[in-house]
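INPUT
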Amino acid sequence: QKEVEQNSGPLSVPEGAIASLNCTYSDRVSQSFFWYRQYSGKSPELIMSIYSNGDKEDGRFTAQLNKASQYVSLLIRDSQPSDSATYLCAVGENTGFQKLVFGTGTRLLVSP
Amino acid sequence: GAVVSQHPSRVICKSGTSVKIECRSLDFQATTMFWYRQFPKQSLMLMATSNEGSKATYEQGVEKDKFLINHASLTLSTLTVTSAHPEDSSFYICSASPTGGETQYFGPGTRLLVL
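OUTPUT
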């Protein structure tokens, strides 16, 4: 069974710090990876997608992918209290059905 | 771009009634849409994959006769919770993938409360 593992947290960081969120996955042939943010009581919103090894930057967010080690991470620079949310890692199932396997999410708390 | 809407956002109904939830992709065509359920403080649970013009594929343990899915066009999928009971109360969220793509864009969700 394909699995995506995340530390549930909470991960607590002070405002302005770098928050590092990690995710590991079990399916070695996975090709697509996504980070979603979910505020309490709301639906997930896409932050970033990444498909190739290395780093991908978008504003304060950087996604890092290492397929050999089967991990993907999300760095949030200059963390703000508004970044406090649950961050979901999702991995494409690579079966042609476009399904994503979601981790259970890491709760991030950014204190002022 | 990539906006997905859901209607209604919130519904309260009596036990035994049926509730229909609509999911629309507003600015793209979606061959595939997905229906999730999320209970408080729990993770997303995929219920079914909805493909335009064909039968939905349900995840293990999800009753297809209770959760009816219709994906009649490239921009609309509906989920009908038939004979709803209090244990069906949950947050129902749909997502849609642009045709040929894998990224899922989520709707705002529908909060269902069955009394």
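end of record. Chain A touches chain B at residues 32, 34, 36, 42-46, 49, 88, 90, 92, 97-100, 102-105 (CB under 8 Å).
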